[in-house]
Write a structure and sequence with these properties.
83% of the residues lie in helices and 0% in strands. With 164 residues, the protein is mainly alpha-helical.
């Protein structure tokens, strides 16, 4: 196993996972970069982990959670300090109608357990065995969650399309 090759293969999947979890490209890039740096530090200090994917996605899950919690705490203070109005202007509303934004919004509407399974397997490219181990569930339970999440996502997107 080579660290550089592992990072090269892991980075795009990790970024997609973080983007799906955060809905914010800048934050997703920051979390993915921090996660890959943690993997590199761990690798250089103690050698490669048994599963670099499991290590990285476990770190990313924690970092996304902390980043989102920090954002929820500080966003109201930032709005007050900066004097921004929380309602988007017409240009921002148009941006929010993009396909990516609609998909991310639909993903956020999924139940958290299904969303996490879907993002790990589909966006993160984690295998079902590894994903099940990361979530502490059986492989069949993971497959069911991913299947259910895909079906709900399709329904949400179809309803958004009808309403648009």
């Amino acid at each position: 196993m080579d660290l550089e090759q592992t990072i090269r293969e892991l980075a795009p999947r990790l970024l997609r996972y973080c983007l799906g979890r955060t809905g914010d490209r800048d934050l997703a890039e920051e979390v993915a970069q921090e996660t890959l740096a943690a993997l590199a530090r761990r690798w250089r200090r103690y050698g490669p982990p048994e599963s670099p994917d499991a290590f990285a996605f476990t770190v990313a899950r924690r970092r996304v959670f902390r980043s989102m919690a920090r954002r929820r705490l500080f966003e109201p203070l930032h709005l007050v300090a900066e004097g921004h109005h929380p309602d988007p202007n017409p240009e921002e509303r148009a941006m929010h109608r993009s396909d990516l934004d609609q998909t991310l919004a639909a993903i956020r509407r999924l139940p958290s357990r299904d969303r996490e399974a879907l993002l790990l397997v589909v966006a993160g490219g984690v295998g079902t065995g590894e994903g099940a181990r990361l979530l502490g569930i059986s492989v069949s339970a993971l497959k069911m969650r991913v299947s259910r999440a895909r079906q709900r996502l399709i329904e949400i997107l179809e309803n958004q399309h009808v309403l648009a």
